Amino acid sequence: MSEDELERLVWYLRRATFRAGLNDWERQFAEGIAMRARNRNWRPTRRQAGIMRQIVAEALAAPEDVEVIEQ
Known about the structure:
mainly alpha, 61% helix, 3 helices, 71 residues
């Protein structure tokens, strides 16, 4: 995993923790990864990277709840 991809995944994971679509395990996983990512020498395992990609892909694919005020 490149440094740029890791940075993007962590950025989106942090935002995904605020979405309503995550279950408790996914939210705790994302928060744990965000904490570990503060260490510059940390790299995710293959399994962690796969889960990170899956959570981010699902978060980006899900429509956001947007309320139109004016048309």
